[in-house]
């Protein structure tokens, strides 16, 4: 997969476009009122087979193109949907996050893609999905996670460009971030690569 298509797969294309249209700002503290927007009615749970069509439709709508939805299908078909959570509101899937195993010397997950239905964005649903995914990853014994995206967004979840420095990956650079899920897991840099589905797009 070339860097342009991974840009698309990770939403970096959209993130870059959004970043260009927004003034450069430091990450803002989370608005906890937003996190409480759906206190009783929103459910975050693992995907089930009956969710597959809805996840595909949601992902296509969120990204405005089919590539990321195809990536989700390919990762699932390969058995690489290590963590796949949906956000459900009024029986409707309004958000989805996927973490897939990366080839690395420590147990490592790549975060991509994450999607929230356009009308439900900016209400904390993406943040809840990512935080729940990271908690599950720790419970499951994963030691580290990488993401390619806009640092303005992902630093609030503990990812940093600094933590990914020195790690070998074809997309290493200013949008490539890492965070430890276990102490000292990223102390010594290593080569890390995304699941094979990322190369099939
Ligand atoms: C990115 C996405 C998942 C975020 O979900 P969300 O539920 O809207 O996010 P949250 O409500 O948790 O957080 C909203 C914050 O993220 C910021 N944000 C959202 N999209 C952003 C982007 N493309 N670039 C930078 N920041 C972004 C918002 O400005 C907002 O910031 P604030 O908290 O300082 O106001 C959602 O906007 C989406 O589905 N986008 C299209 C697909 C995509 O680009 N996915 C990410 C790449 S894998």
Automatic annotation (TrEMBL):
Gene3D superfamilies named in the record: 3.40.630.30
Limits of the N-acetyltransferase domain: 42-182
Source species, domain of life: Bacteria
Keyword match Transferase: yes
Record InterPro entries: Acyl_CoA_acyltransferase, GNAT_dom, MshD_Acetyltransferase
Repressor found in the keyword field: no
Keywords: Transferase
Gene Ontology MF term list: acyltransferase activity, transferring groups other than amino-acyl groups
Protein name: Putative acetyltransferase
């Amino acid at each position: 997969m070339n860097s342009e298509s991974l840009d698309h797969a990770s939403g970096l294309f959209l993130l870059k476009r959004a970043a260009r249209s927004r003034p450069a700002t430091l990450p803002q503290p989370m608005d906890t009122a937003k996190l409480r927007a759906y206190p009783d009615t929103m459910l975050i749970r693992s995907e089930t087979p009956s969710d597959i069509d809805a996840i595909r439709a949601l992902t296509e709508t969120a990204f405005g193109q089919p590539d990321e939805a195809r990536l989700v299908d390919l990762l699932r078909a390969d058995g690489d949907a290590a963590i796949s959570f949906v956000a459900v509101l009024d029986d409707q899937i309004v958000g989805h996050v996927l973490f897939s195993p990366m080839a690395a010397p420590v147990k490592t997950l790549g975060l991509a893609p994450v999607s929230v239905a356009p009308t439900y964005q900016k209400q904390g649903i993406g943040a809840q999905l990512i935080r729940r995914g990271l908690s599950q990853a720790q419970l499951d014994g994963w030691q580290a996670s990488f993401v390619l995206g806009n640092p303005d967004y992902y630093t609030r979840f503990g990812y940093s460009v600094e933590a990914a420095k020195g790690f070998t990956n074809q997309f290493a650079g200013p949008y490539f971030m890492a965070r430890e899920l276990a102490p000292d897991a990223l102390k010594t840099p290593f080569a890390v690569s995304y699941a094979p589905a990322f190369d099939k797009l």
